[in-house]
Amino acid sequence: MAYDGLVVSATVKEFREKLIGGKISKITQPEKDEIDFVIRNQKDNYRLKISVNPSLPLCILSDEKKLSPISVPTFCMALRKHIGNGAILDVKQPDQTLKCKGLERVVIFEIEHLDEMGDLGKRYLSVELMGKYSNIILYREDFTIIDAVKRISLSQSSVREVLPNREYFIPDAGGKKNPLELTEESFVSLLCDKPEPVFKALFHNITGLSPLTASEMCHRSSVDPDLSANCQPKEALAKLYQGFNEVVSSVAARQSPDPVIVYKDGVPSDFSAFPLTIYDTDSQYEVRHFESMSDVISRFYSEKDKSSRIRQRSTDLRKVINTLLERTGKKLNIQEKQLKDTEDMDKFRVYGELLHTYGYSLTGGEEVLRCENFYTNEEIDIPLKKDLTASENAKHYLEKYDKLKRTRENVTVQLGETRQELSHLESIQTALDIAESEEDLQDIRREMGDFGFIHKAQGKDKGKLQRKSKPYHFVSEDGYEIFVGKNNYQNEDVTFKIGDGGDIWFHAKNVAGSHVIVKTGGQPMEDIPDRLFIEAAGLAAYYSSHRDDKKVDVDYTIRKNLKKVPNAAPGFVIYHQNWSVTVEPKNMTEVND
Question: Which class for 229: exposed (0-12), middle (13-18), buried (19 or more C-beta within 10 A)?
């Protein structure tokens, strides 16, 4: 995640456009490390959200509204006293000295305010977005601190005290240079003696750059990011400066913003204040463009939080499924071994029959009977128990044959049931990976309860499981509706309720996955455009257990060719006529019904 100085610069641009000249009408502190401002500028109200949560530090314009606590926290009271009803004169991003424009991960709001005596004065609110060191600090014109949301004593930090009446300053970041002041000559001089990969040398020695930004600069300049900076020819470093300057100037000069979020398999993985070319050739990644940096940060954190929250809430189900998969896998191995042990059972039947035929020649005490096998016309040696008669040896072999025959019949049935159960569990595991909402998890809980994998919900809990989620709904480039089931109950509905006999059905070949139905409107298959098959098959591959593979085989057939598997879990079907296609797993933009 790249919450670097360039991202802060892009948000400062938004703040300058919308907040300068505005008046702070409301200040709340919904969380111990979060402050919300309502700022009225002419006829518009803006909500400024500042969070210094170590895992989610941010400073953005947001529509989210949180309830305030009953008792007002001390820092919130200090803000109301010193900047309440104040006017925002300026918003800036400083360098480490606080004297020049820079790319520190710090936003400073300059606020004009009337004090208790009615005198006009200035206050400064510094928002430091530095991971676990993030803080919100209020200070005066002479740089003395008034208060901070996180007070830091000398016993907590030997670098800087953040306490009332202490001097406010930004700690030195190891001598990093201000990127806005670097010329080509100073840039090359700075990096040419650094004995580390050049992309690391960039963000280790220049303020405001992240590893992602540094890698993007190398990519744009066609410079090997892993080659040490001190091994790079000066021509390559000069070329790198051009890529560096292109990125920094496009954001820091506050041109039209073009922030992006990078998605991997539909889940946000990174964001940036500028377009990223480093992912252009990797089909696993999708780069989406947005109009504002605040929108990017808000959406990234909410989607990331949503994804992690659903995964956290499904932990208990995943644990149950993993345990059952392991247990069922072991049971399958035992049954397959038992079945393999019955492969030679016909040999014992032949031994018994041959002993009944040739046993008269035995006189007693022999360990082997050599005779002709009348099934193959070859000689055969039959091991004997010398303390048993020929008839008793024959009976022993025939009883062993009967036992193995019964074992084979029973194990064959059990194997079918175990394989079916394993497929069912794998399909539920895939549904858990696809789940995106609490309703999706409720469908899965209901199915697991119905089939005895967990205790079935009773009473009040049963009422919570009545809400049902809806299948995915997509529209192809040619306007055809495509429906994708998220779990087995939805697969059943998509195939046999939403799908008509003439519609086309897709499913990843021989693996757990979603049912995909393309609504054809009664059109014959030969009239349907070829790219629709690729789009629908790509969805079937993406919403399967093999979604991370580069290529996946997908079966498709007319829906009327499908038959339900008797006594099987919902969504399990058989078909004897189909076509196949190999495609790259690919998602589409869902239609909001």
Answer: buried
Class of domain 179-311: mainly alpha
Long-range contacts: 310-318, Cβ < 8 Å, 24+? Answer: 310/435, 310/436, 310/437, 310/438, 310/440, 310/441, 313/438, 313/441, 314/432, 314/435, 314/441, 314/444, 317/432, 317/441, 317/444, 317/445, 317/448, 317/454, 318/429, 318/432
Q: Break the chain into its structural domains and give their ranges.
A: 5-148, 179-311, 324-428, 472-583
- Alpha-carbon distance of 391 to 364, in angstroms, equals 11
**pTM: predicted TM-score of the whole model, two decimal places:** 0.61
CA distance 319 to 428: 12
- For residue 315, the model assigns a pLDDT of 87
Rounded Cα gap, residues 501 and 482, in angstroms: 15
Which residues contact residue 438 at a Cβ distance below 8 angstroms, ignoring those fewer than 6 apart? 310, 313
- Tell me what pLDDT residue 565 has: 86
Count of beta carbons in the 10 Å neighbourhood of residue 256: 7
Q: Is residue 449 a contact partner of residue 359, using CB atoms and an 8 Å limit?
A: no
What pLDDT does 25 receive?
94
> Which residues in 129-152 are b (16+ Cβ under 10 Å) and which e?
bbeebbbbbbbeeeeebbbbbbbb
453, 463 Cβ separation under 8 angstroms:
no
Q: Of 3.40.309.10, 3.15.10.40, 2.30.310.10, 2.60.40.1180, which CATH number belongs to 5-148?
A: 2.30.310.10
Residue found by looking up tokens 């919904």 in the block: 30
Q: What is the DSSP string of 352-382?
A: HHHHHHHGGG--S--SEEEEEETTTTEEEEE
Task: Check: CB of residue 551 under 8 Å from CB of residue 544.
Answer: no
